Amino acid sequence: MMILHALERGPASLAQLVESTGIARPTLHRLAAALIHHRLISRDYQSHYVLGGRLTELASAVGEDRMTAAAVPVLAWLRDSTGESAQLFRRHADTRVCVASAERPVGLRDSIPVGTRFSMKAGSAAQVLLAWEDQERLLEGLDQAIFTPATLAGVRRRGWAQSMGERETGVGSVSAPVRGTNNKVIAAVSISGPIERLTRSPGRHHSATVLRAAHRLTEMVRSIENG
């Protein structure tokens, strides 16, 4: 912890760490090697010690857990307002994962348990998670996708996405982006249900409500990120 606290102030050489921590040089060298092994620290181009990527991953996990907790009441409100099951999706590599949900309690519904993984090639949540990516990732994501560049252009213009039978025959959905403090899209809020109830234009009926839920969660996320 003394080493990590010292590196919080910026890159440091072995000699500088010895001086700032008071740890004997051989002991500090062994501890640093162990911390590098676990990716808690690393070396920069000048061979100075710096904080490692694992710390960023742990911080992200903390933020995700807090966002998931914050999403629970928002998804419940969205479900009750629309009468349809509501979900929160995060992108993980080439898939999107349901990290929180509030299911319609009775009647015909689209049941998506927490932890369910779907392809990034279909569905309104996939459209939202891809639409604001940089050009390279956008083109990569469109390869073999059911939706088209024109579809994603429409998502960016409107600020929400809809799908009818993309992920599963007979199922429709509406999604909107959740953004972090840097305005980057970090999640997608969705509702989903049978097309016979959502109609062939689910966004016309539910986009305003889904956008409101996404805005509420965005405000919560930014509050969390800002401490």
TrEMBL record:
Pfam families, per database record: HTH_IclR, IclR_C
Keywords: DNA-binding, Transcription, Transcription regulation
Presence of the UniProt keyword Nuclease in the record: no
Stretches assigned to the HTH iclR-type domain: 1-53
Record's protein name: IclR family transcriptional regulator
Matches recorded under SUPFAM superfamilies: GAF domain-like (SSF55781), Winged helix' DNA-binding domain (SSF46785)
KW Transcription regulation (keyword) present: yes
Domain IclR-ED: 54-223
